Amino acid sequence: MISAIVLAAGISKRMGKLKQLLAFGKSTILEETLKNLLNSKVDEVVVVLGFQSEKIAQKIITLPVKQIKNPHYLRGMSSSIRWGLTAINKKTDAILIALGDQPLILPDIFNKLIDEHCRNHAGITIPVYKGRRGHPLIFDIKFKEDFLELAGDIGGRDITSKYPDDILEVEIHSDSVIKDIDDRESYQKHLKSYGYDSS
What we know:
about 30% helix; globular
């Protein structure tokens, strides 16, 4: 069983507005990210909200995902992961940690990572594009306690550096795994990749 935790609690400081709900095609950035995950082989999707959580929650209310609010979202990414871990199924075998602002990662990419993770009985699976590691990452449930001990604005970096022998790198032929949406420029580039003109 694979449980996806989607990190969508940030304040979008560099963007200057709530990027989770920015238009993306006929949808929004977060909705598109969630739909791609829901159309993949993950068994459940947990979305961690924080900043303006009520507004975002209403927008995604029709999607079959678990919503959880992180009241301490200002403490960084690690706190959102910890809150997400409280909502996953107790029978899950692995945790896929995804960013809420990567709408160009399509279901087939998630599926390839999941298939390779399971086939190789990997501890940690990381997508790689032209030598650069990206997201999402998949962690065996055995690393749950390590995540619960994290603090600050870090995700899985501390764990991957701690357990290098457990890592399986999977080559992905798409730069979507190394791109997220942090500012207006990256937003426009994503729209262009999607074939959508916001002007």
